[in-house]
Amino acid sequence: MNKISDGTLVSTRIRLARNIEGMPFPGHLKDEKQAKEIIRLVSSGLNRLDDFKLYYMDSISEWDAESLVGNHLISPNLIAKKRMSAALINEDSSLSVMINEEDHLREQCIVKGLQLRRAYDKISEIDSKIGKKIKFSYDEQLGYLTACPTNLGTGLRASVMLYLPAMTINGLMREVIRLLSKQGLTVRGVYGEGSEAEGYMYQISNEVTLGVTEEDIIDQVDKTARKITELECTERRNLINGVNSLAVKDKCKRAYGVVTNCARLTSGELVSLAADIKLGACLGYINIDDVYYIDDIVTKMQPYNINKAAGKNLSAEERDIYRADYAGSHIKALCDRENSN
Amino acid sequence: MNKISDGTLVSTRIRLARNIEGMPFPGHLKDEKQAKEIIRLVSSGLNRLDDFKLYYMDSISEWDAESLVGNHLISPNLIAKKRMSAALINEDSSLSVMINEEDHLREQCIVKGLQLRRAYDKISEIDSKIGKKIKFSYDEQLGYLTACPTNLGTGLRASVMLYLPAMTINGLMREVIRLLSKQGLTVRGVYGEGSEAEGYMYQISNEVTLGVTEEDIIDQVDKTARKITELECTERRNLINGVNSLAVKDKCKRAYGVVTNCARLTSGELVSLAADIKLGACLGYINIDDVYYIDDIVTKMQPYNINKAAGKNLSAEERDIYRADYAGSHIKALCDRENSN
Fold first, then answer.
1. Are A222 and A116 in contact, with CB atoms under 8 Å apart?
2. Most CB atoms within 10 A, among A182, B13, B88, B200?
């Protein structure tokens, strides 16, 4: 395994937008009754599959809602109109179908690493099953019809989440974003509110859905993700050999020192410190092999997941203490495990 | 041993100012020849004691000068007029005699902890020995005559270095300094350039030298140091039980994490981080028993001592790397030793 590239390809997401023929788009539904009829129709297509569970948005707790949004299984938009909407989610949370979001159906598959084809196959299987029960709005010329024209045609959005610390530190992301935009690809920072991506995380996805095949889209995103990974590896080598290598090494090692010793830790700090620890591991400054496990720890310690991890409701201060303890001991264990090998 | 008070009483310094009868004060010497004559006179009184070494200020290297000043064995003032001045320093550097600083003789003893009486006895022994060879300027009414009237009488300055993190954090130092000033005592921050004492270090000393006995001075400084230590202990308990205890614990533990993991470290950072590590040890948050040893590490890693510790001349960057490595591994070893007990 080429350690220098570790952690770059974080996850893959495929999303399909579908609507039911003869039904007004969710934004134009007559009443709640019509909305519930759609929910019934869609879920009946999947109900036979044991591992999907139906969540009515008006009957889930605020905490469940927060957790589902945080883990990207539903959108905040779905909750905003909760008396009309629902979601089908499978057991391992890799598959979800939002009902009555912007479109009648938003089918999604999330998997780890770069697996666009696999994710597409998985969600297509669900799409076919539902398609046997429901007739989707489809036009021979245009393809799948969607509420917003940006999704017309394939209704497909293929996204890859990338961890790009070296390209960020070396100031290349602005140029990369500009170049990808010319090729019809969008780049978004993942955690941050501002323009700077927190945790060096970026999501790359196709902008164009019309006039191209599903194959074209998946191919383009896949090739781009691989190309960017190569660029990131080059920049990581440049970091190791560059004039700022000591500063980078110092920053990474301090991040490890802080996370493994602190008495309290906010989720924002953990995102940013974990990003530096992962970089330290990739560059060989910190002896941790499984950098993806650090992502799992960070996700588990997010505000929308931490109560579940703790098995009880924690106050804000208790969360910061629990997070410091959990993240610190688990990341330290990763390092100790390597050191004892 | 009462751990809560650990580290408070850092060191004791006794200084005597003396001048030679019939000689103009150093600021009024005729020429270098007269200055050298004084150096000869003074050192002849101590030459028989094996463990004193004479350093002419105009013949020591810049580095030795820096090291002697840094370790408080001579003053920058002594180097400023190096063609006229010298210093006698004993082997363990506990005793030093500056020759032709502001006065003909500035005799000093520095020892660890609070040992005013012992330090006074040690320097008095040297003073007597020199006094057998040289007649000091002495007035029956005034006592010892000195170049500056602030030293007239006893010529004695008794100082104690105190580490006062809790009183500093709880904002009590301003009031303490005001009260001590009313009692004729001066308080100075030790490292910092500004008004804030770096490393929570303060030096307390007598301002009055005239119209009091040596006993009075030593008694007053000793009682004050003990009283302040009690106050500091109370404030440390308040820190543990106060609303900011988690913040304090977090700060101390992070300081430990940074020092034991960083790849480079400036001396200023080490002073400040070590101060927090010591506090964490005193409050029971970090498992280190011998906090005084941390002071030794910090001193060793100061710019004026680090080349000696490394055994070679280091560039600025090399120093920061060496300091990170040395301080980190030694402080970690202190903690590991305790954890394995």
1. yes
2. B200
Q: Answer with the residue of higher pLDDT: A63 or B274.
A: B274
Instruction: Using alpha carbons, select from B316, B139, B123, B103 the residue that is nearest to residue B214.
Output: B123
Say yes or no to pLDDT of A213 above 80.
yes
Tens-place pLDDT, residues B253-303? 999 999 999 999 999 999 999 999 999 999 999 999 889 899 999 999 999
| Cross-chain residue pair A259–B256, CB shorter than 8 Å | no
pLDDT tens readout for residues B18-61: 999 999 999 998 889 999 999 999 988 776 665 899 999 999 98
Q: Which residue has the tokens 């070590």?
A: B274
- Is the pTM here over 0.95, yes or no? no
Residues of chain B contacting residue A317, judged by C-beta atoms under 8 Å apart: 246
Q: Which segments within B292-334 are labelled E, that is strand?
A: none
Supply angle C-alpha A279, A285, A286, rounded to 5: 80
Tell me how far apart the alpha carbons of residues A320 and A264 are, in angstroms, rounded to a whole number. Answer: 5
Distance from CA of B338 to the nearest CA of A (A): 17
Q: Is the ipTM of this complex over 0.90?
A: no
List chain A residues with CB under 8 Å of B253.
261-263
pLDDT tens figures, A228-276: 999 999 999 999 999 999 999 999 999 999 999 999 999 999 999 999 9
Residue B2's pLDDT is 43
**What are B202's strand-pairing partners?**
B162, B189
What's the average model confidence in pLDDT over A10-37?
94
Q: Which two tokens stand for residue A120?
A: 């597409």
Total beta-carbon pairs less than 8 A apart between chain A and chain B: 55
Structure-token pair, residue B41: 């006179």
B188 touches chain A (CB under 8 A): no
Beta-strand ranges (E) seen in B81-234 are 86-90, 95-99, 105-112, 138-139, 143-144, 156-163, 185-189, 201-206
- Angstrom distance (rounded) from CA B173 to CA B196: 10
Q: Which of B247, B257, B264 comes nearest A250 by C-beta?
A: B264
Residues of B in contact with A254 (CB under 8 A): 257-258, 261-262
DSSP assignment of A145-158 equals --SSGGGTBT-EEE
Q: For residues B280 and A262, what is the distance between their CA atoms, to the nearest angstrom?
A: 12
| Interface test with chain B among A248, A249, A250, by most B beta carbons within 10 Å | A250
Cβ neighbours of B321 in A, within 8 Å: 246
Tokens of B89: 């320093």
Is A240 near chain B, with CB under 8 Å?
Answer: no
